[in-house]
Write a structure and sequence with these properties.
alpha+beta; 3-stranded antiparallel beta sheet; 3 helices; 7 strands; flat
Length: about 130
C-alpha cells in the first residue's frame, strides 16, 4: 500500500526477491527486508508486514530473479552487482527511462541467448511534487 502524501509504503513478500530502494539524492541502493513463503504453497499462511518511507526522488524496485539471472549462452549471469550498479547510475532518471535502460542492458548482455526465465520489473518513483 502506498500513501503518496507521506511516502509511506507497506508491503509483504510472497516469496520473491527483496525489493530495492534507490536513494534519489545519492543513488545508494539498499535491500529492503522481505521474507515470506511463495503464495499458494500452503493454506492459511501469514506474511510478515514491512514498511518504508520513500523520500521525494526515491525509487522502489520490485523484480523477479529472471532479471538478475539473465544469462549468456555460456550460462554467465548478469547478476545482482550489475543490476544494483545500473540502478545507482540511473537514480535521477524517470522510472520509464530506468526500466528501458535495464531491459536494453540485459538484451545487450545476453547477446541473443534464449531467455531462460521471466523478466518482470515494477518501479515506483516518488515525485518531488508530492503535495
Amino acid at each position: 500500500m502506498w500513501d503518496p502524501s507521506s511516502g509511506q509504503i507497506s508491503y509483504a513478500s510472497g516469496g520473491h526477491n527483496p525489493p530495492l530502494l534507490i536513494d534519489g539524492e545519492t543513488g545508494q541502493v539498499r535491500d529492503l527486508p522481505a521474507t515470506g513463503i511463495a503464495l499458494g504453497i500452503l493454506p492459511g499462511i501469514e506474511l510478515q508486514p514491512y514498511s518504508v518511507e520513500m523520500k521525494p526522488g526515491d525509487t522502489l524496485v520490485a523484480y523477479t530473479d529472471g532479471v538478475t539471472e539473465a544469462m549468456q549462452d555460456d550460462y554467465t549471469e548478469w547478476g545482482m552487482e550489475n543490476f544494483k550498479d545500473l540502478l545507482a547510475d540511473t537514480h535521477r532518471d524517470s522510472a520509464q527511462k530506468t526500466v528501458d535502460r535495464i531491459l536494453s542492458t540485459i538484451e545487450s548482455f545476453v547477446a541473443g541467448a534464449p531467455q531462460s526465465d521471466d523478466l518482470t520489473l515494477w518501479l515506483l518513483k516518488r515525485s518531488h511534487d508530492h503535495k
